[in-house]
Amino acid sequence: RLKLTWHQFTQISSQYPRTMEWKKILLLAGATAGSAAVLWYLLKEDKSAGKLAASSEDERRRLAAKPSVEEITKEQVRQILKEIINSQDQMKGFIKELTQELLSQSLSFDETYKKVRAVQPKDPLESHGLSMTDFDKLLDKYQQDPDVRDSIAKIMGAPSPSNMASEKVQSISVRKVIEVHNFMLQELEKLVEDFQKVPGKEGYDMKTVTIAAQAIVGSKIEAKFGLTSEDIESAVLMYHANLATDQDFAQVNIKIQHAMGKLMGTTFTN
After folding, report:
1. ∠ CA(15), CA(21), CA(27), 5° rounding?
2. Which string of DSSP letters, residue by residue, matches 190-215?
3. Rounded to 5 degrees, what angle do the CA atoms 129, 133, 139 make?
4. What is the number of H-type helices and E-type strands within the chain?
5. Among 12, 116, 142, 225, fewest CB within 10 Å belongs to which?
């Protein structure tokens, strides 16, 4: 089984083992601090088949007219990745603003959810009639292409070098990184428990739920520790070697991944 921590995902573009499951990679990448913009479209169940069965005849015809995976070219894959990056960048900006709003005023989960829902862009994969399984095959097929590698690296969202060099990030210790992640887990588990009690939760869009959850938890982390998501990600990358062998860090990340899976109504296996 694949066992990776966040900092390893920043190097995915140069590794690409053929046995990697892209959906799981992106799930794990999003399960740590500050990756809500990745989660908004990547962390989801592959329900395309179910949607197709329930769609209208016109919709089925429209999707049937889409090119098959075998017909999609490298240039098209590059374009899809660009669209994903653009959508992700839009959501990053919104999540930053929403986190600040949550710091200054109290919003219910439903209010936060509605704010996200109002600005959430359309899923690029859905626009192209592709499932995550399809996309996984395409990434595997074109994994050696430099542009594809670069795009995946951008999707992973590695922190900027300037942020890593900041005095604030440099002052964060390994133990503080683990403490923040433990706090993140506690807040996420509370949120998951509360969400299970929400009436009609089955009607909620799970991508939107994930973003709202990340924004809420992110605001609580910033309120308690004075650290932004990018600060935490930068510290994780800075302590790459230390955290790679730290059992406490590994365990809390596994628990965070399980909690995110529970929120999404999925089962995470490690």
Report:
1. 100
2. HHHHHHHTSTTGGGS-HHHHHHHHHH
3. 95
4. 17, 0
5. 225
Query: Residue 268: pLDDT band by 50, 70, 90 thresholds?
Result: low
pLDDT tens digits for 126-138? 888 888 788 888 9
- Contact residues for 155 (Cβ-Cβ < 8 A; gap 6+): 26, 38, 42, 81, 84, 85, 88
Tokens 């089962």, residue? 267
User: What b/e sequence results for 91-107 when a residue is b if at least 16 CB atoms lie within 10 Å of its CB, and e otherwise?
Assistant: bbebbbebbeebeeeeb
Helix (H) or strand (E) holding 144: none
Residue 52: closest CA among 138, 133, 141: 133
Dist. CA 211–CA 262, nearest whole Å: 15
How many angstroms separate the Cα of 26 from the Cα of each of 60, 61, 105, 185, 260? Answer: 28, 30, 31, 19, 13
Contact, 240 vs 7, CB < 8 A? yes
pLDDT at 192 over 80: yes
Q: Scanning the structure block, which residue is given the tokens 């089925």?
A: 60
- What residue has token string 């690409």? 16
**What DSSP string describes 49-105?**
HHHHHHS-HHHHHHHHTSPPGGG--HHHHHHHHHHHHHHHHHHHHHHHHHHHHHHHS
